[in-house]
Every structure is written in C-alpha cells, then in structure tokens.
Backbone:
C-alpha cells in the first residue's frame, strides 16, 4: 500500500493482513478462532497474508505505471504540446498536468 512517505512497511502490511483476517472472522461469525475451526483459521490467515502480498505487488506496479505516465506527460510538454491538450488526452485536469510537469 502506498503511504504519504512511500511504500508501506512490512510491519504495516502484516497489520493490514491481520486486520483483513479479523474482518473475515467477524463476517464468518468466528468469535474465538483459536477454539473454533482451527483449520479454517489457518486457511484464513494464509489467505490474508497472501492477499496483503498481492496487494503490495499491485501497489508497486501502479507506482511504476504512474511514473511512466508522468514521464510521458513531461515529454509531451517538452515537445510543445499544451498542458490543456495533454490533460484532455490523459483525462485529467490541466492543473494536475501542471503539477506533474513541475515535479
């Protein structure tokens, strides 16, 4: 997951995975998973951890795609395309294009 300062730490991802497992336990109605369905709890925890890892990979891919998008926007601006035209093609505001160009 992305945070203001960059990618989320592995400890934060583990907290996130544990929170997902807690939500799933609540949905499944398992009040005390250590006493009820220990195999289901193990499967659920494995799923939650796997989900957090996959989510992290997707966030990293999204960050790389944003970086490539920003490079393309800067290149188009350097080549003389007006910010409003870039904004229209990229389906974003000209203010956002300006922010990207200036960054």
Residues:
């Amino acid at each position: 997951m992305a945070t203001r300062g960059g990618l989320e730490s592995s400890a934060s991802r583990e907290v996130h995975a544990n929170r997902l497992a807690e939500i799933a336990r609540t949905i499944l109605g398992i009040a005390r998973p250590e006493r009820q369905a220990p195999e289901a709890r193990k499967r659920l925890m494995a799923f939650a951890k796997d989900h957090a890892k996959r989510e992290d990979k997707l966030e990293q891919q999204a960050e790389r795609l944003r970086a490539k998008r920003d490079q393309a926007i800067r290149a188009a601006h350097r080549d003389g395309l007006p910010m409003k035209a870039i904004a229209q093609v990229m389906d974003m505001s000209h203010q956002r294009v300006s922010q990207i160009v200036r960054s």
User: Anything to note?
Assistant: Residues 5 and 63 are 13 Å apart (CA to CA).
